[in-house]
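User: Here's a structure from my thesis project, written as structure tokens. My advisor, Dr. K., wants to see whether a designed sequence matches the one we expressed. Can you design one independently, without my sequence as a hint?
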């Protein structure tokens, strides 16, 4: 019995000690309180020691400044009108503009092509003539246009290659699709005997030209002959039928049907070409065609020395 009372007394003393400790802590809290500041409810405010703490606000992550794309190393395009201004591109994006006689052209389809994988995205121009491809993978890209139906538009266009990534996108200079129609000579389906003269209408954005002879049209066409660069004021080329492209044979063109056209360089805007026109190479004149002595003399006579020389001068 005495032992039980001793244990109960011990338990009571423990509870009393705990109660006194708790009361002491509360008393210290109350003593550390002070009158509430003017304008705040309640007569007391807690001491800062007992105020709930707040995590410091995280400082915003500084935004990486956008870098500019590499500078151009080729001459600007010679627009025959005021240079059109382009919309600014965002990272992982390619934008550009298509014109017709200097005016924005809507609803034109172009392909934005990855220069490494050759995967492409087809986009159309909006009412302002602007095309835009967003969400591209980092890499280098060019834009390609192709036309095989409209005689009053260029046949194809390919821009220069430009980088796209997280620091900047690609803004491609505008190019113009207008062409003065198929008014070149020889015209579509015409026949001629080589050597002969080929005359073309100018393209307003051309810095220089190449004269070309192909086996057929379309992307699968292969060239038989490609001239050296001709200056932008050249409108005529004398061609003797020679072949200068590997894998296309040797010597000169045999009688038959071929295509001819011009390819041009437009500086920063890229490169393009007209719709190629088909023509027929006829066999050279023989005695049976014209048995007159004058014709026989013309056939057997050595070709004039200045003919190859003039061609070579143009090719320089």
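Assistant: Designed independently from the structure alone:
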């Amino acid at each position: 019995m005495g032992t039980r009372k001793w244990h109960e007394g011990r338990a009571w003393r423990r509870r009393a000690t705990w109660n006194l400790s708790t009361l002491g802590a509360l008393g210290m809290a109350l003593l550390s309180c002070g009158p509430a500041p003017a304008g705040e409810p309640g007569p007391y405010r807690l001491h800062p020691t007992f105020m709930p703490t707040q995590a410091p606000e995280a400082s915003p992550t500084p935004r990486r400044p956008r870098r500019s794309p590499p500078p151009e190393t080729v001459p600007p395009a010679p627009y025959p009108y005021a240079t059109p201004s382009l919309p600014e591109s965002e990272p992982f994006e390619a934008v550009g503009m298509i014109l017709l006689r200097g005016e924005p052209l809507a609803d034109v389809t172009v392909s934005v092509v990855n220069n490494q994988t050759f995967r492409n995205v087809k986009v159309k121009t909006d009412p302002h003539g602007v095309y835009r491809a967003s969400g591209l993978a980092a890499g280098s890209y060019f834009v390609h246009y192709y036309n095989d139906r409209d005689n009053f538009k260029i046949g194809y266009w390919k821009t220069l290659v430009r980088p796209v990534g997280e620091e900047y996108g690609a803004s491609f200079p505008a190019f113009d699709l207008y062409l003065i129609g198929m008014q070149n000579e020889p015209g579509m389906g015409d026949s001629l005997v080589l050597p002969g003269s080929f005359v073309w209408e100018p393209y307003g954005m051309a810095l220089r030209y190449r004269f070309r002879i192909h086996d057929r049209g379309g992307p699968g066409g292969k060239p038989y002959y490609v001239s050296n660069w001709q200056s932008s004021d050249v409108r005529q080329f004398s061609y003797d039928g020679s072949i200068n492209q590997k894998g296309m044979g040797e010597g000169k063109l045999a009688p038959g049907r071929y295509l001819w056209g011009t390819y041009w360089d437009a500086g920063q805007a890229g490169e393009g070409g007209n719709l190629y026109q088909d023509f027929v190479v006829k066999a050279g004149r023989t005695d049976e065609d014209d048995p007159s002595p004058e014709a026989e003399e013309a056939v057997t006579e050595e070709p004039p020395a200045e003919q190859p020389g003039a061609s070579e001068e143009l090719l320089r």
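When you compare it with your expressed construct, this may help: The two ends are 129 Å apart (CA to CA).
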